[in-house]
Specification:
This protein is α+β, with helices and mostly antiparallel strands and 63 residues long. It is 29% helix and 27% strand.
């Protein structure tokens, strides 16, 4: 059964709304822009993927 990982809550940057979700033994990061991170066994790695994506998105928007 998949469960939502709300430890840090959704993050947003200039039109990018991200979230993480558990799928079995893996944690998946995704964004409203269509980006998806790789399946990770550690939630912390999935959250790091989200932070990197948001940093890239912020840089692309000149923030």
């Amino acid at each position: 059964m998949a469960q939502q990982d709300d430890v840090t809550g959704p993050r947003t940057v200039e039109g990018h709304r991200t979230s993480t979700a558990e799928a079995g033994r893996f944690c998946l990061a995704r964004c409203s822009c269509g980006w998806r991170g790789p399946a990770r066994r550690a939630r912390s790695k999935a959250r790091s993927d989200v932070e990197a994506h948001l940093a890239d998105a912020a840089g692309a928007h000149g923030d």
